[in-house]
Amino acid sequence: MTTKNSAKVRAPQCHPDRKHKARGLCASCYKRALSIGAPFLPDSLLRKGPLPRTPDCHPGRKHAAGGLCMPCYNIQSKIDPTRSVVRKKAKAAYQRRHLTRIQRLRRYGLTPEAFASLSEKQGHVCAICFCLPLGKRPTLCVDHCHTTGRVRGLLCSACNVAIGYLRDDPERLLSAITYVLCR
Predict the structure, then answer these.
(1) Which residues face 65 on adjacent strands?
(2) I need a labelling partner for 62 at 20 to 30 A (CA). Which of 42, 106, 134, 176 fits?
């Protein structure tokens, strides 16, 4: 019997020793019922999307990746580098670089195939110094006219930077040539 000042304490049907959450369930059972979409719950409370995965190693824990919980996944990634987080980060970095390269080519109206054919026409060397591209990223840069946007050719990064510093001005280029030859 309850009095006016004391609230009625309700025990959950699933675990009577625990505190009642809602719908006759304790907090953990209610959360599980929400995640699997129990029929007694209204549609607004049902979880949208796929059911959460449980790890094979410790079914009570939250799934991290590869059928493992987070502590086991971290241990496994140290033991087996092929499943490592480092490998995933390297793959993501490669994909970013690849996409960035394609986006850069699109800026000049080139496809990767057109870039490859232009590079093949030049013999895969710089159009100015006739050297293979060296450095951290050994790729040829697209040289273009800044007024018309027309692609002139492919340059190594050193020649591309040199032309950029000389502001694509033929007089400055000739002046630099005479300076180098006279000194």
Answers:
(1) 68
(2) 42
Pairing status of strand 151-155 against strand 20-22: unpaired
CA distance 54 to 75: 18
Q: pLDDT digit string (tens) for 151-170?
A: 999 999 889 999 989 988 89
Please name the residue ranges forming H helices in the chain.
Answer: 27-36, 70-79, 85-107, 112-121, 157-165, 170-182
CATH code, domain with 151? 3.40.1800.10
Residue 61 in any domain: the answer is: no
Q: What phi and psi, each to the nearest 5 degrees, are found at residue 25? A: -125, 155
Number of structural domains (the chain) is 2
64 within domain boundaries:
no
What is the structure's pLDDT at 84? 59
- Series of mean pLDDT values for 10-residue runs along the chain (183 residues): 55 70 73 61 49 68 73 68 64 76 85 90 93 80 88 91 90 92 88
- 46: domain range? 11-52
**What is the pLDDT, as a whole number, of residue 151?**
92
